[in-house]
Every structure is written in structure tokens, then in C-alpha cells.
Amino acid sequence: MLGKFNVGLVALSGCSKGELPTLVGKGKIEQAREASRFYRETFGNDFFIELNRYPSRDGMSESYILASFAKEEGIPVVATNNVHYAEMREYRVKELLNAVDQNIPVSQLQGHRTVEQYLKSSKEMERLFKDIPEAIDMTGEIAFRCNLELEIGKLYFPSFDTPRGETEYSYLSKLAFAGASRKYGSIKPGIKNRLEHELNTIEKLGFCGYFLVVWDIVRWASERGIQCQARGSAVDSLVVYSLDISNVDPIEYDLLFERFMHPLRHEPPDIDLDIDRRRRDEVREYVYHKYGGENVACVGTINTYMAKGAIRDAGKALEIPQEIIEEACMGIHYLSASQLLERSDSLPELKKNTVYKKSELKLFFELCAAIDGFPRHLSVHLGGLLIGDGRLADMVPLEWSSGGDIISQYDKDDIEKLGIVKMDLLALPTLTVIEYT
């Protein structure tokens, strides 16, 4: 796998838990040499042995052993600090989140624990590695080699298979005018001008393929008797109405297209589709089948710590008595976790408790405030689907959800910044009720 994706990568041997440092630390030098040869063959001159030094730790010797090994093998070294948090004072927060992740109290955390894994200044790093200045110099060399350009602002639409001889624009225009003829009988000048204006705007902004993708989904659903309609500002568009994506006539209701799309606003249109809740999965399966499993994924959503979640998780990790946790939760109906510390003395639910040490409660509330708004876990967006113009794994980090869906590790806002198409296929119970009425 490494050999397949090694091009353009700079590889470091890792912290003390890495394969090479572990072997060297255990005195398994021959095995370490074999491992280092493999990495040199794989990454060439882009492989470095990473050196960490923590003044408060006996493991300083590990750095010297690794440096000696690197010199013997002719492998360049680079100084790092294995950074886990920005400032030293955030060490407690990191410990707390580690405990929450492992579902154990902070007091039971195992392994190497140090307050030194913060983002040190250049002066601090130079002092630590004053005997190996080349390890510091190499950080600049690696930074110089790293060159990533994200084409922010570019849009990535899936290609739509148009009939032979048709472009996306010509095919969209043909469908729109044919639909308008069915709905209005004859196309009067006002309708013709409106359609041409909308189609020109859609083409200018490069969204013809997007409209065809949405049209195709709605067409497929309608042919199978699945209730499926657009919601929101999309109904302001005559093209959307003519394509049967919406049943709302923007001419009859005097709706303004520019509320939905404007030539000066280079944002992708957002057409949310409401679908009969019982049959939404059928529509999703069609999208997966049409565009390929590697090109489609669910949008991830990042759930963050709210007040009660922060209190419960922090309280459990710090072994705060359950009664204190419950009392704290009762008193925050109108507070965020970040307000707990300053308001704790005035909350009657907490003032009445005289059992627990005030200093420990202070730390508890400080940590609750620190993680307020932090990411708690990744879950699946209610209806968002990504459709790429190629393998999504080449564009977005993906993972399996607990429910078996492939989801993006980016949320909808980051997906939008990257310019990847997001389709909202929303399950609407109301449409199910209408179907039964």
C-alpha cells in the first residue's frame, strides 16, 4: 500500500510509538535496519528519522540512540515535538479527551504522559537540539518540499451522460422548453425570455450538469411512483418548474429567479429534494448505482459538545460523584458549559452541595468550559449525499459509519468550500401521509 501511494509524500519515522523508534528502543537493531531499508526504498530521500526530546522525561536517551542509529544508516534526522495541543495549559484537556475516548477515568490512563507535547517556539526547539542543529535545519527543508495547492473556488460536478450530439447546455435547454410547452401549451415571449435568461445564467455559472443530475433523480423517482419534490428557493426557477423538479409555478406566483441564483453570486445552487420517507432509500440506491459506489458518499456532520454532554463526559472522566453531575445538569437549562465556572457560586443546585471539594469542582467546571463546542463525534447528515466527478477518496477523507454507510469526515460547509456537489435527499413524513390520503 505504501509503495502504491508513496509519490509526493514525505515520511517521518514517527514518535516513540513508531515502528523504528520502538525497535531501536528495545535494542532490536537488526530489525530496525531492515525496517529503515524498507522505508528508504519506498520513500528514497524523503524518509527521515524523527527525534523528540522532552526535558521532563527519562526518554531523552531515546533521542540520542535514534540519532546515533540514523548516522550509522545514513538517514537524515528531523526535530519535532510530537505536538498534541497548542499550549502547555491544554494538557489537562488532552488528558480528559483521551479518557473520554477510552471510556475510563483520567486516573487510569496508561502509557507515556507528558505536558511537553505542545507547539514549542523556535527558541525552545533550538535549545533542545543545540547539539544537532541539522535536525532543526531539516524542518525548514521539509517545509520547503511540501507544496499543496487546493483549488478553492473550483466546482466539481459529476459528468452527465447526454444523448449523442448534445451538450449539457443544449440538452438542458431542450428539456426545459419541452417541459414549458407541456405546462403552458404555447410558449409566450415572456416565458421564452425568462427561460433563456435562466438557462444563460445556469450555463454561465457552470451548473448545467447539476440541474440534469437533479432532473434525472426526480424523473427516476416519479416514474416509480415515489413522491419527490423540491423545496426552498429552488421553486423560484422556471427551469426547475419546467423540469418537473417542482410543482410551484413561479410565473403564477411572481417568484424572482435571482433569489435562487444570481450571476454575481458564484455559489452552487442548493436544490433540496423532499422524498416519501418510506422510499427514500430506493432513491439513494439509484444514485449509488448511477454514479458508482466509489463516487458517492453520505455527508458527515460533526456533533459538538453542548453543556450537558460536556458535564456528563467530563464528570465521568474526572470521577465526579453522579449527584454532582446531575445537579450541574439541572442548573444549566439556560447556560452554556463555558458559563458554568463563573455562575457556579450562584446556582442553587450546586451551592447546596457541601460534600465535594471546591477546588475539584473548579477544575471540573474549567474543563467543561474548555471542551464546550469541541467536536464530540462524527455522524451522518440527515439527507446529504456527495456525488464526485471521480473517486471521492481522492478528494475527501472518508470512513465507515456505525450504520455501514461511507461518510465524509468533512461537514457540509467544508464540502461546499471544496466545490463538491452535495445533494439533499430528505425523508419527509408529510409526503408519506399524502400518499396514503
Topology:
Blueprint: E1 11-12, H1 19-25, H2 29-43, E2 47-51, H3 60-73, E3 77-79, H4 91-102, H5 122-128, H6 133-145, H7 168-184, H8 189-205, H9 208-223, E4 228-231, H10 238-242, E5 272-276, H11 280-291, E6 296-304, H12 307-317, H13 322-330, H14 340-343, H15 348-351, H16 358-371, E7 375-387, E8 398-400, E9 406-408, H17 412-418, E10 421-428, H18 429-436
Parallel strand pairs: 1-2, 2-3, 5-10
Antiparallel strand pairs: 4-5, 6-7, 7-10, 8-9
Total number of strands: 10
Q: Classify the helix fraction into a percent range.
A: 40-55%
Envelope shape:
globular
Radius of gyration: 29 Å
Kindly estimate the percentage of residues that lie in beta strands according to DSSP.
5-15%
Major β-sheet, in short? 5 strands, mixed
Cα-to-Cα separation, first versus last residue: 56 Å
Alpha-beta content class: alpha/beta
Q: How many helices in DSSP terms? A: 18
The SSE order reads: EHHEHEHHHHHHEHEHEHHHHHEEEHEH
- Given as residue ranges, the uncertain stretches (5+ residues, pLDDT < 50) are none
Widest sheet: strand ordering: 4-5-10-7-6
Average pLDDT number: 88
Descriptive report:
One of its GO terms (molecular function) is 3'-5' exonuclease activity. Residues 171-427 form the Bacterial DNA polymerase III alpha subunit NTPase domain. Residues 4-53 form the PHP domain. With 437 residues, the protein is α/β, with parallel strands linked by helices. Among the domains are: 11-83 and 120-145, no CATH class; 168-301 and 377-436, no CATH class. The protein has helices spanning 19-25, 29-43, 60-73, 91-102, 122-128, 133-145, 168-184, 189-205, 208-223, 238-242, 280-291, 307-317, 322-330, 340-343, 348-351, 358-371, 412-418, 429-436; strands spanning 11-12, 47-51, 77-79, 228-231, 272-276, 296-304, 375-387, 398-400, 406-408, 421-428. Strands 4-5-10-7-6 form a five-stranded mixed sheet. A hairpin with a 5-residue loop joins β8 (398-400) and β9 (406-408). α7 (168-184) packs antiparallel against α8 (189-205). The model has no long low-confidence stretch (mean pLDDT 88).
